[in-house]
Design a protein that fits this description.
Layout (H helix, E strand, L loop, with lengths): L3 H20 L28 H4 L11 E4 L5 H8 L6 E5 L2 H10 L6 E5 L2 H4 L6 E5 L4 H15 L6 E5 L5 H4 L4 E6 L8 E6 L18 H5 L8
Parallel strand pairs: 1-2, 1-4, 2-3, 4-5
Antiparallel strand pairs: 5-7, 6-7
Length: 228
């Protein structure tokens, strides 16, 4: 049986989540079953607002950063970024066209926010610097995403991947060009991995490297094209 203090804490978190959800246009809780499970996509679920200050601590986000939520779903992380007053360019990418349209409409008044409906492998913004993932994909897709990040950013320094509930982080840990810092957050939350590409390898052509897992080009052949 749960302790009364635990129940009270859960209720407080729920009230806080609902309050911030409605501040930005509507309730974002619950889980939506995906139509794309065969492509390696997980169901749509929202990050708990309470976890985000532990993920993006202190001065993690700089004024020059372009924030990208890969598999943004209903847009709760974007809500939180906005609530913190970040004026940064924010890009959310969501494969489910129904979810993407609703999120785009809800956040339409925020000129620094762009919601893209489509395959993230085809729509990663080349000016992105901070990429957030809340375990949105299964292992083959994470391997494809890693490969695509290498192809786009191997000659650029400064990108960071914040992988929350990092189930398949070994895909990055097993490749020497990536530096992975695993972080245990407050006991209420999932593990976090902060992942960065080694700068000293930026002169190597990523196309010449052997792919670990499924390459982006291989995986994209079975992925739906953008509906945007």
């Amino acid at each position: 049986m749960r302790k009364p203090s635990s129940i009270v804490a859960s209720c407080i978190r729920l009230v806080r989540n609902v309050y911030l959800d409605f501040k930005y246009g509507g309730f974002l809780g619950g889980t939506r079953k995906t139509r794309y499970s065969l492509l390696g996509v997980e169901d749509t679920a929202s990050t708990d607002y309470a976890a985000l200050p532990f993920i993006f601590t202190g001065n993690t986000i700089k004024e020059s950063d372009v924030l990208v939520d890969i598999g943004c779903g209903k847009g709760r992380v974007i809500n939180w970024w906005l609530s913190r007053g970040f004026p940064n360019q924010i890009v959310g990418i969501e494969l489910d066209d129904t979810v993407a349209r609703r999120t785009k409409w809800r956040l339409r008044r925020h000129r620094n926010v762009e919601i893209i409906c489509g395959d993230a492998l085809a729509h990663l913004p080349v000016n992105g610097t901070i990429f957030y993932l809340y375990n949105p994909f299964k292992e083959p897709w994470v391997a494809a995403m890693k490969r695509q990040l290498e192809l786009l950013f191997s000659t650029k320094a400064g990108i960071s991947v914040f992988y929350y509930n990092c189930v398949y982080v070994d895909i990055f840990k097993n490749d020497p060009i990536w530096v992975v810092e695993e972080i245990v957050l407050d006991q209420r939350f999932h593990r976090l991995a902060v992942i960065r590409m080694k700068i000293e390898n930026s002169d190597q052509d990523p196309a010449s490297r052997p792919s670990s897992g499924v390459g982006a080009s291989q995986f994209r052949a079975s992925s739906p094209r953008s509906k945007a």
